[in-house]
Amino acid sequence: MAVGTTRAKRKLGRHVRPILERTGLKTTEVAKLVKTSRDTVDRLVSGAHLPRYPTFLAIMMIIKATPEEFAEGIALWERADKDAVVIEHAATLPPNYLRFRMDEGEAAGERTLDQQLIPGLLQLGGYAEALCHRAQAMTFGTGWTEKAANERLSRQELLSRESEPLQLHALIDEAALHRAVGGRDLMAEQLTHLLCVGEQNNVTLRVLPFGAGAYGAHFGALTLLDYPEPDEPLSVYIEGHDGVRAVEDERAVGVLTAAWDDAAQLALSPERTAKLIREVRDTRYA
């Protein structure tokens, strides 16, 4: 039985929900008829949990799914039962961050907006270690600093995977270039790394210069994940003091998507971005 929250489980939940609503039954009533817990039914519908196969079949029978709905539901259950995304150090990751990593692993495109730091997909191992040295107790717990570099490197394999590498469009505030995480030498290496990665065909790197002034709403790092299926809604994640979390509210998703679009209007072109990164590296960290 698969655990955690994956995109496939959420899709299965969206499939089951209207069938359940059509019957007029409450989840407590379904649970009683199936002889399972209400929590099992609620979490199936919300996409947070995949019940055992016999339980799932019983639920579909109780809510009187049509043969077509039954067949599609079984296909979705089988897909959700297979975690295709392999996450290194998964057992040590906070649940919200693990969900993000699993969604990111299935995404075709990623748009990011970082107002203070270099985005995770572009961080050197030393940069990640320097960040975790300060914040590990609040997010990942003690002992994470030693694993941070490997976790970042594993995540960055998405940009070079053989089958359809992730398309990244990263917006980075100029402030992140001047924040000397890990010291001058490390930042010089980090900015050189940005220049190299920015030359990849699947990576678009753009800086929001100080002269752009205010843009959008101010929050932690923002990530928008787009999927290959045209009917699959994008996933939105923001990062705060308590780590990364998914944004489920449709209105909030609209606001944050508009914030990214607003920032993109003000960002420098990739060519001017590369020039600015070189200038900061060669003057501030030389």
List the helices and strands and how they pair.
Elements: H1 7-23, H2 27-34, H3 38-46, H4 53-62, H5 67-80, H6 95-106, E1 109-114, H7 125-135, H8 145-156, E2 167-173, H9 174-178, H10 184-197, E3 203-208, E4 222-226, E5 235-240, E6 243-246, H11 250-266, H12 270-284
Parallel strand pairs: 1-2, 2-3
Antiparallel strand pairs: 1-4, 4-5, 5-6
Could you characterize what this model shows?
The chain is an alpha/beta fold and 286 residues long. It has two domains: 7-80, 434 Repressor (Amino-terminal Domain) (Orthogonal Bundle), CATH 1.10.260; 90-284, Endonuclease, Chain A. It is built from twelve helices and six strands. It has helices at 7-23, 27-34, 38-46, 53-62, 67-80, 95-106, 125-135, 145-156, 174-178, 184-197, 250-266, 270-284; strands spanning 109-114, 167-173, 203-208, 222-226, 235-240, 243-246. The chain has a six-stranded mixed β-sheet, with helices on both faces. A hairpin with an 8-residue loop joins strand 4 (222-226) and strand 5 (235-240). Helix 1 runs antiparallel to helix 5.
